[in-house]
């Protein structure tokens, strides 16, 4: 106000007051009390795929044999001229439907067919997948 009294005749006084008013408003709005805390969205729930299923999908088994093992995977066009077993139906296995026989097929593959040997897989992984396939049998 002392400042204002210094310019009593100033025709721009009204603008000066207005400017001071705006400045005070800005300063008030900058006070930390007015800060709205930023709410971070909660993290999405963790998805864990059980180990055997992950092995079955990651190694590409599902792409030929189907996610449910019914022989209708996404690569069915590649296998149109080939025999594809239905893991759900025990009678369609020709190399044995026991856990041991399935593990052996995975390990050695079936020569001359699209079923390649998965000899690079660890025994623990092969056993887990064999167990998973056996559980599909009805
Ligand atoms: C590129 C396609 C393809 C992929 C990938 C594939 N398979 Fe196969 N699989 C076949 C075909 C085709 C057969 C049947 C071969 C034949 O006997 O003519 C077969 C046969 C089998 C059999 C023998 C079934 C029987 O008749 O006794 C088992 C078990 C098997 N696959 C498991 C697996 C597992 C486990 C994986 C993944 C680690 C896998 N396959 C990946 C195509 C595939």
Helix content: 40-55%
Structural class: mainly alpha
CATH class of the domain at 51-136: Mainly Alpha
The pLDDT mean sits at 89
Total beta strand runs? 0
**Largest beta-sheet characterization:** none
What's the helix-strand series?
Answer: HHHHHH
Poorly predicted ranges:
none
In DSSP terms (H or I, runs of 4 or more residues), the helix count works out at 6
CATH architecture verdict of the domain at 51-136: Orthogonal Bundle
What Rg, in angstroms, do the CA atoms define?
Answer: 36 Å
Fraction of residues in β-strands: under 5%
By CATH's scheme, which homologous superfamily of the domain at 51-136 applies?
Cytochrome c-like domain
CATH topology of the domain at 51-136: Cytochrome Bc1 Complex, Chain D, domain 2
- What small molecules does the structure contain? heme C
InterPro entries: Cyt_c-like_dom, Cyt_c-like_dom_sf
Keywords: Heme, Iron, Membrane, Metal-binding, Transmembrane, Transmembrane helix
Transmembrane segments: 12-30
Protein name: Cytochrome c
What this model shows, in words?
With 138 residues, this protein is mainly alpha-helical. It is built from six helices and no strands. The protein has helices at residues 2-6, 13-29, 51-58, 61-65, 99-108, 123-136. The chain has a domain at 51-136: Cytochrome c-like domain (Cytochrome Bc1 Complex, Chain D, domain 2, Orthogonal Bundle), CATH 1.10.760. The radius of gyration is 36 Å and the shape is rod-shaped. It binds heme C. Heme C binds at residues 59-61, 63-65, 75, 79, 82-85, 93-95, 102, 105-106, 110, 113-115, 118, 129, 133. GO terms for molecular function: electron transfer activity; heme binding; metal ion binding. This is Cytochrome c. Keywords: Heme, Iron, Membrane, Metal-binding, Transmembrane, Transmembrane helix.
């Amino acid at each position: 106000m002392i400042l204002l009294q210094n310019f009593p005749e100033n025709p721009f006084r009204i603008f000066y007051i207005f400017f001071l008013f705006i400045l005070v408003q800005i300063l008030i709005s900058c006070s930390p009390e007015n800060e709205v805390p930023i709410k971070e969205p909660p993290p999405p729930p963790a998805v864990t795929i059980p180990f055997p299923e992950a092995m079955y999908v990651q190694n590409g088994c599902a792409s030929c044999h189907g996610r449910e093992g019914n022989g209708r995977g996404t690569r069915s066009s590649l296998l149109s001229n080939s025999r594809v077993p239905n893991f759900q139906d025990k009678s369609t296995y020709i190399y044995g439907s026991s856990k041991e026989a399935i593990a052996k097929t995975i390990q050695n593959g079936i020569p001359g067919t699209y079923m390649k040997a998965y000899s690079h897989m660890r025994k623990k992984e092969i056993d887990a997948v064999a167990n998973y396939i056996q559980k599909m049998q009805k």
